[in-house]
């Protein structure tokens, strides 16, 4: 999602939707009042995200260099990581890798975001039609749970490879902890992966950490994520436009777990879904007047997430 033409296309689509719909739905009262708990994170809490930020960055590297962890500074940032599987071509299927981090004691699943020169993922980003989740991949999830069809298709393409790799890695390293990470489109895929893995690996402790995450699904989807109860965190940088797309007007909502980096580089905990406080993304960023596409890359505690490796 970092490319300017992607964001421009998404913005034009969003503006068309804004002009075509007579009135925007108000946020539910319990969420419009969800300003309690807004507070800056302490520095040790911020620093705890750094390994995941670097994994999201490394996901932009091709499998040939992530499978043996030889991707230069992207890999050197997490030097003890043990990759177990990698795939994708970066055009039709986003790059991905799976492995074990002994410092965290976790299996890591990472997905590439959107590259500037790969048009197919861009088209997936702009394929805004929400559809039900595949009941084979997401058993027991109702047909009322709708997600962005492009994100869903991208997740489905690698789901079985990811599941097999995670199972093998959990067994090899004797761990039950699994964290999915990604930036932009990669964050969307990783969020769906977290739901998928939680449903298929009931003994695993799953976590999701995303950066520049767009809205992925409708209100029943975000309620599903809440109900499943695994830990979710998504970091939105300053006036990044991507986290407020697709628009609420089209029925999309954000999951809980937002952390907003403000102009003073404070990391702010923002409880609820689409928290309207000016300390949080929805209140701080305006689709029409007040956004900065360059904030999408970060920095996230000093890490600029590059779409090139």
From TrEMBL:
Alphabetical keyword list: Disulfide bond, Signal
Signal peptide range: 1-20
Catalysis performed (reactions): a diacylglycerol + H2O = a monoacylglycerol + a fatty acid + H(+); a monoacylglycerol + H2O = glycerol + a fatty acid + H(+)
One biological process term in Gene Ontology: lipid metabolic process
Annotated Fungal lipase-type domain residues: 109-248
Any Pfam family: Lipase_3
InterPro entries linked to this entry: AB_hydrolase_fold, Fungal_lipase-type, Sec_MonoDiacylglyc_Lipase
PANTHER family: ALPHA/BETA-HYDROLASES SUPERFAMILY PROTEIN (PTHR45856), FUNGAL LIPASE-LIKE DOMAIN-CONTAINING PROTEIN (PTHR45856:SF25)
Family per record: Belongs to the AB hydrolase superfamily. Lipase family. Class 3 subfamily.
Official protein name in the record: Lipase
């Amino acid at each position: 999602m970092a490319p300017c033409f992607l964001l421009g296309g998404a913005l034009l689509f969003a503006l068309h939707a804004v002009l075509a719909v007579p009135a925007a739905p108000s946020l539910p009262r319990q969420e419009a009042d969800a300003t309690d708990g807004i507070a800056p994170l302490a520095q040790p809490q911020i620093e705890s995200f750094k390994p995941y930020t670097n994994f999201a960055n490394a996901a932009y590297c091709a499998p040939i260099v992530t499978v043996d962890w030889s991707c230069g500074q992207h890999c050197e940032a997490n030097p003890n990581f043990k990759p177990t599987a990698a795939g994708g071509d970066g055009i039709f299927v986003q790059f991905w890798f799976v492995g074990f981090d002994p410092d965290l004691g976790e299996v890591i699943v990472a997905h590439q975001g959107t590259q500037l020169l790969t048009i197919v993922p861009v088209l997936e980003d702009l394929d805004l039609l929400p559809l039900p989740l595949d009941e084979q991949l997401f058993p027991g999830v109702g047909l009322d749970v709708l997600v962005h069809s492009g994100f869903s298709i991208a997740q489905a393409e690698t789901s079985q490879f990811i599941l097999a790799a995670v199972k093998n890695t959990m067994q090899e390293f004797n761990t039950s902890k699994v964290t999915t990470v990604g930036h932009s489109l990669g964050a969307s895929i990783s969020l769906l992966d977290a739901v998928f893995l939680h449903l298929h690996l009931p003994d695993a402790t799953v976590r999701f950490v995303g950066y520049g995450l767009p809205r992925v699904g409708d209100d029943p989807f975000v309620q599903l994520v809440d109900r499943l109860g695994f830990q979710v965190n998504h970091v939105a940088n300053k006036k990044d436009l991507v986290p407020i797309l697709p628009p609420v007007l089209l029925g999309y909502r954000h999951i809980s777990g937002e952390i907003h980096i403000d102009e003073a580089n404070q990391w702010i905990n923002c409880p609820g879904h689409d928290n309207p406080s000016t300390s949080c993304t929805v209140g701080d960023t305006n689709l029409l007047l007040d956004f900065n596409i360059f904030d999408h890359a970060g920095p996230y505690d000093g890490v600029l997430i590059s779409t090139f490796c």
